[in-house]
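Chapter review: from sequence to fold.
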Amino acid sequence: MAIIVVGIGPGDPERLTVQARDLLAAAPEVWFRTLRHPTVAELVLTGVVHSFDDVYETSAQFEGVYATIIDRLTRLAADGRDVLYAVPGHPLVAEATVRGLLELAQAGGPAVRIVDGLSFIEPVCAAIGLDPFAGGLQLVDALAPQVDPARPALIAQVYSRAIASRLKLALLELYPPEHTVTVIRAAGTGDQSTETVTLAELDRQDGRFDHLACLYVPALVVETNLRTFEGLRAITHRLRAPGGCPWDRKQSHASLKPFLLEEAYEVLAALDDGDPARLAEELGDLLLQMTLHTEIAEEAGEFTYGDVFAHISAKLLRRHPHVFGSARITTAEEQWRAWQQIKREEKGGAESILAGVPRAMPALAFAQAVQERAARVGFDWPRVDDVLDKLVEEIAELRAAATPDERRDEFGDLLLVLANVARWLDLNAEEALRLAGQKFVRRFGGVEALAHARGQDLAALDLAGLDALWNEVKAAERDQT
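The token string follows.
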């Protein structure tokens, strides 16, 4: 026995197919997903009529509604009879219950037969004069809106003001409040209406939404698509294209290198300052550098955005077999070792454990990173006190250095040991030095301000006078904290 799903169209009884009308008229029993549909009142039915409207009234969430309807229908079919199930529109357009029934059928459940009906899409497109192919129309569920604002979207299931409010908040993450949208009600019926409002006004009026309402959202132009990566990509492409910005057009991988480093340090500064708004801005500047490099590569035929995404996505999948596979890893240390082993296998197994540390890193960070990797395979002092003893030894050797080259080498060894001390103390040496440098700049600025306020010339002060100002600034900082 089978479940026969009949589409009863968008709402105008004249748009019901002959096949659907004949099946419904002859059926001894019909199950409607809902009786709240204009076509139902005009049907000539000789059999017993049932509906699932009671399920909507008793279920808290739509997922529960769909699951209950599917369960009831499969139970009816299990009794050895065909079940005629009537749904609005077309059975395969925005019908979660039908999707669920088809999945069950593939898994060995009751067979499902589809009887076509006109969907809501055609009359909606006619109502607003829209060719769905012209701009790549998206079909979206208001209960789970996933939208690309660079393309127009038709959003179904906007059946209440509450749903419209939730939808509006989701869309405001991508669209400006003044973006105009169109509410279409009862498309394809005598009660059809359209209303164009701004997104900000979408949910401000009662009676605008019911079970026959949907929303059309036009695409954003490049200049207003500001909240997606595709928008940034389009803007960057325009800057590099003929007629774009002369400065952007003349850049190359080599010329952009300083800006990449500069923007990375700006991100670090925002992190150090604990400023989320500035961090968002600086991450955007860093992302721009990545898009510029990718645009340049695409123009030269070197690689594409797809290559960039594919490389990192495939790498993450390979190196997290405990998440995307069957491996068992429970600690960060186990994950680090597994990550390194996978990297060696990717490189053929012969690569040094230190080979992956970028040599372009700042020297102090590089020193700590290589010692961290060496320590993980046992190349390490047994205790932090041993590292501190080594630090004393390096200071003595620096004192004894006689030539500029010797002093350079011994000073480098001293910094290397200091980086190892930071590792033992679970500190980031580069960050510690950067923060210390920023603290020095802040305090020296305080010294300058005090001297200026008191009419003192810093260059004329002796060491004791400078030290007194310095200690005064330090004390003021302590009092503020």
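Two observations follow directly from the output. The first helix runs from residue 18 to 26. The beta strands are 2-7, 29-32, 48-51, 83-87, 111-115, 138-141, 153-156, 180-185, 193-198, 213-217.
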